[in-house]
């Protein structure tokens, strides 16, 4: 507020107002006039200074806000490439620093059916729908264009596809010898409910994990009869009966009888397509779109697996499984095995996020099934009950809690791990169990983009150091994964 703005008010309240007062001595009139003018002038001056003060405070707050934001952005943008003004102390971040500086953004599902608007490409807005909360699962129609789907399939065919799973292999006894496990110890590992008997579903789970063969309860009873393993014929194996079997007795029996492709855990063909520098523009665009979708640091996406393209012919399937395994002290993530510097006998895939693209619409079958999505509880033992195997996508896909129909260009993605509550990877999400239903008509084409992150943040940081192409002195800068360089928040609730 200025003096010019206050002047009209002053003029309206003095001469005209004083004309109606009774006549007074000149001296009294003069003193009264001076007092009135002084008080009004004092009020005007105070108000001017007050408004100027408020404006300055607001301007200062805006300046601090925007200048600090620009400084942070410029620092994060310049950090990977600048060779100047770097800190003297160059050490890997400690646990506290690492957890403070790095945060793995997780998209909120809100509720099943909730829709968010997602900006992934210029001039277009996609709608992302929440399909389940356990696991945290989303669907984005039109993620890929028809031309992009065609290019990916053509590139895969040009490179050539291979069998996704080989037939039964020998050498299972070597692992048992390395672990030095006795029959009693193996029996106790298989006896999930610890009742002293091995039920059919306990043996089935073990055989599938070890041999890659999908056995039904009927198959297992045939094997029992062929090996004469179940002496009393009650369908259960006692410890005494189990001791009579060698480590690969089931495997040898199956080799003698022959294994059909339909008996494999997975019946498909696949290949891998590189997405780095020099790759086809469509493949690079897909990777950039995934980075924006997940809002993860680009470094993590760049260092993850290439794009896997899979083709299922009629009769093709993939029984229910987890893309990632739980990580125990005895295991190491496959992608960070070199950085782990351990001699652990077990490896597991550490895939924090799965992004699945449907490259064509399937004529019949081929849905992606999530048997226990949004179940109130998860119980591994209850997955096989009364000869109904929820893991069997050839027989029981219709009994899954959720099935996603393959539609050309649609993408679905989910988190295979929970959050640890501090911005990093937590425990495996067991509800992320999923499989590919049998294709009854036509052919099914899909592509998978996995983002690999080790739940052990120190191993992940060490891995990034080892694979980094930057000079040694710049490795630590590449490890910071400053969240400021992540894609901006491009999700908007509808």
Automatic annotation (TrEMBL):
Catalytic activity from the UniProt record: L-prolyl-[hypoxia-inducible factor alpha subunit] + 2-oxoglutarate + O2 = trans-4-hydroxy-L-prolyl-[hypoxia-inducible factor alpha subunit] + succinate + CO2
A GO term for molecular function: procollagen-proline 4-dioxygenase activity
Coiled coil regions in record: none
Transmembrane intervals: 42-66
Location of the protein in the cell: Endoplasmic reticulum membrane
Enzyme class: oxidoreductase
Keywords: Calcium, Dioxygenase, Endoplasmic reticulum, Glycoprotein, Iron, Membrane, Metal-binding, Oxidoreductase, Repeat, Signal-anchor, Transmembrane, Transmembrane helix, Vitamin C
Superkingdom assignment: Eukaryota
Keyword Glycoprotein: yes
Region: Disordered, residue numbers: 1-22, 72-97, 466-494
Sequence ranges assigned to domain Fe2OG dioxygenase in this UniProt record: 303-453
EC code: 1.14.11.29
Bias (Acidic residues): 1-12
GO cellular component: endoplasmic reticulum membrane
Membrane protein topology class: Single-pass type II membrane protein
Biased composition (Polar residues): 72-84
Pfam families per the UniProt record, alphabetical: 2OG-FeII_Oxy_3, EF-hand_5
Required cofactor(s): L-ascorbate
Subunit architecture: Homodimer.
Function: Catalyzes the post-translational formation of 4-hydroxyproline in hypoxia-inducible factor (HIF) alpha proteins. Hydroxylates HIF1A at 'Pro-402' and 'Pro-564'. May function as a cellular oxygen sensor and, under normoxic conditions, may target HIF through the hydroxylation for proteasomal degradation via the von Hippel-Lindau ubiquitination complex.
Protein name (Swiss-Prot/TrEMBL): Transmembrane prolyl 4-hydroxylase
Upper lineage: Eukaryota, Metazoa, Chordata, Craniata, Vertebrata
């Amino acid at each position: 507020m200025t003096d010019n703005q206050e002047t009209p008010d002053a003029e309206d309240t003095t001469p005209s107002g004083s004309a109606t007062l009774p006549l007074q001595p000149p001296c009294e009139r003069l003193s009264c006039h001076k007092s009135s003018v002084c008080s009004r002038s004092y009020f005007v001056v105070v108000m001017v200074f007050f408004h100027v003060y408020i404006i300055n405070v607001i301007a200062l707050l805006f300046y601090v806000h925007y200048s600090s934001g620009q400084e942070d952005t410029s620092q994060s943008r310049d950090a990977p490439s600048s060779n100047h003004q770097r800190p003297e102390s160059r050490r890997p971040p400690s646990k506290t620093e690492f957890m403070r500086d790095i945060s793995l953004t997780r998209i909120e599902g809100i509720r099943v059916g909730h829709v968010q608007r997602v900006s992934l490409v210029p001039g277009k807005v996609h709608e992302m729908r929440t399909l389940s909360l356990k696991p945290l699962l989303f669907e984005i129609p039109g993620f890929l264009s028809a031309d992009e789907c065609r290019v990916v399939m053509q590139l895969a065919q040009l490179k050539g596809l291979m069998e996704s799973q080989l037939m039964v292999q020998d050498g299972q006894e070597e692992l048992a010898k390395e672990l030095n496990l006795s029959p009693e110890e193996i029996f106790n590992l298989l006896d999930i409910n610890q009742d002293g008997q091995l039920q059919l579903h306990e043996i089935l789970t073990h055989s599938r994990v070890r041999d890659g063969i999908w056995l039904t309860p009927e198959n297992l009873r045939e094997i029992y009869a062929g090996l004469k393993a179940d002496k009393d014929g009650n369908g259960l194996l006692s410890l005494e009966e189990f001791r009579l079997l060698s480590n690969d007795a089931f495997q040898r029996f199956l080799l003698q009888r022959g294994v059909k492709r339909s008996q494999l855990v997975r019946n498909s063909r696949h290949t891998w397509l590189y997405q780095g520098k020099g790759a086809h523009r469509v493949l690079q665009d897909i990777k950039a779109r995934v980075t924006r979708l997940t809002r993860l640091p680009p470094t993590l996406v760049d260092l993850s697996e290439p794009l896997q393209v899979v083709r299922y012919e009629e009769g093709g399937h993939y029984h229910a499984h987890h893309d990632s395994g739980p990580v125990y002290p005895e295991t190491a993530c496959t992608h960070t095995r070199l950085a782990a510097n351990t001699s652990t006998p077990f490896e597991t895939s550490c895939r924090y996020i799965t992004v699945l693209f449907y490259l064509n619409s399937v004529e019949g079958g081929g849905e992606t099934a999530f048997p226990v999505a949004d179940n109130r509880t998860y119980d591994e033992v209850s997955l096989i009950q009364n000869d109904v195997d929820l893991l069997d996508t050839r027989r029981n896909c219709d009994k899954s809690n959720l099935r996603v129909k393959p539609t050309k260009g649609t993408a679905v993605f989910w988190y295979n791990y929970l959050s640890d509550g501090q911005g990093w990877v937590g425990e495996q999400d067991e509800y992320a169990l999923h499989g590919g239903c049998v294709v009854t008509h036509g052919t099914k084409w899909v592509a998978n983009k996995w983002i690999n992150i080790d739940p052990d943040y120190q191993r992940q940081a060490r891995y990034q150091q080892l694979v980094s192409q930057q000079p040694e002195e710049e490795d630590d800068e590449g490890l910071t994964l400053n969240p400021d360089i992540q894609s901006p928040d491009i999700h908007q609730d509808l």
